[in-house]
């Protein structure tokens, strides 16, 4: 093996700062300039120049569901969706809702809840949880609420 025939290395080494005047980078300033914030120590990634940080500027989550995970709340199904996708005397359960609304199995784990938004024009048999107003509207339209826990 002849050393002069070896291929040259492409990568250059990282400059070693703070190793004295002989390193070729300077003595006491070692390539960091003269004075200032960046010469003394590292600045944290979340530092925003001294202004109030975003984590303290944003408000707390308030309201009814503040202690619940948002993802676990049920998927709301209103009357407009039911009228659009189903015909008279259809039985609606979670399996049919997953199929017709094309909801993934991961999302479907949250569950469903029928709410009384919109108009229900068809008599449907509903086998998923519903609000009190929705149950009245379902029975008024000629359908049945057959869900039991």
How would you describe the overall organization of this protein?
With 149 residues, the chain is α/β, with parallel strands linked by helices. It folds into two domains: 18-58, no CATH class; 70-145, Ribosomal Protein L15, Chain: K, domain 2. It is 24% helix and 9% strand. It has six helices and five strands. It has helices at residues 37-40, 54-57, 79-85, 94-101, 105-108, 132-140, and strands at residues 75-78, 91-92, 112-115, 125-126, 144-145. It has a three-stranded parallel β-sheet. Strands 1-3 form a two-stranded parallel ribbon. α6 links the parallel β4 and β5. The termini are far apart.
List the main descriptive attributes of the protein structure presented here:
149 residues; alpha/beta; Ribosomal Protein L15, Chain: K, domain 2; 2 domains; 3-stranded parallel β-sheet; two-stranded parallel ribbon; 6 helices; 5 strands; elongated
Brief overview, please?
By secondary structure, this protein is of the alpha/beta class.
Q: Strands, helices and their partners?
A:
Blueprint: H1 37-40, H2 54-57, E1 75-78, H3 79-85, E2 91-92, H4 94-101, H5 105-108, E3 112-115, E4 125-126, H6 132-140, E5 144-145
Parallel strand pairs: 1-3, 2-4, 4-5
